[in-house]
Amino acid sequence: MLGLSAAGATVLLGVSPAVAAAPSAGPVPTFTCAAANGDGTFTYFFGYTLDAGPALAIPIGPDNQFTGSTKNLGQPTQFTPGPHPEAFSVTTTDSSLQWHLDKTQLKAATGSLCSNVAVVAEAPAALVLPLAAAAPFSVWFLTMRRRSRRQRG
Fold first, then answer.
1. CB-neighbour burial class of residue 30 (10 A; exposed 0-12, middle 13-18, buried 19+)
2. Nearest to 49 by CA among 72, 24, 71
3. What are phi and psi of 35, to 5 degrees?
4. What is the pTM (predicted TM-score) of this model?
5. Which of 31, 40, 57, 67 is placed for a possible disulfide with 98 were both Cys, Cβ 3.0 to 4.6 Å?
6. Per-residue model confidence as pLDDT tens digits over 15-57
7. Is the distance from CB of 108 to CB of 31 less than 8 angstroms?
8. What CA–CA distance (Å, rounded) separates 91 from 47?
């Protein structure tokens, strides 16, 4: 589903939502997972769910903002009915984020690991695909080398 890698060890973070929602027909924010990028930044994956009804427009402002100095982190302003688990992502140095959407507050904090993001430990991203592609050849080469040695001696 999500494939993330970064130079150095990739550390993944999970969800620890603190949702305080009043009954509403508005969109409810969701948090899929977060990943530490290995360079001091974190990438958070957010979405929302809107129960059946008309699409809604909620501009950036008191009803659609993140806490902190930057209120707009690329969150949507148009909301359509249904689940939208990965509507946008945010890359930041903050270790937690809080999104205020309509009457709901969602805090994305580090905690459990995301199970849908591949972990590549201690391998630069530029080497992952070439090494993965070379694996079948390496097995064939070592097998043929071993056979050749057995036949010679």
1. buried
2. 24
3. -135, 140
4. 0.60
5. 67
6. 444 444 444 579 999 998 888 778 888 888 899 999 988 999 9
7. yes
8. 15
The residue type of 112 is: S
With a cut of 70, list the residues of the chain below it in pLDDT.
1-24, 110-135, 137-139, 141-142, 153
What tokens were used for 39?
Answer: 């360079």
Q: CA 56, CA 71: separation in Å to the nearest integer?
A: 20
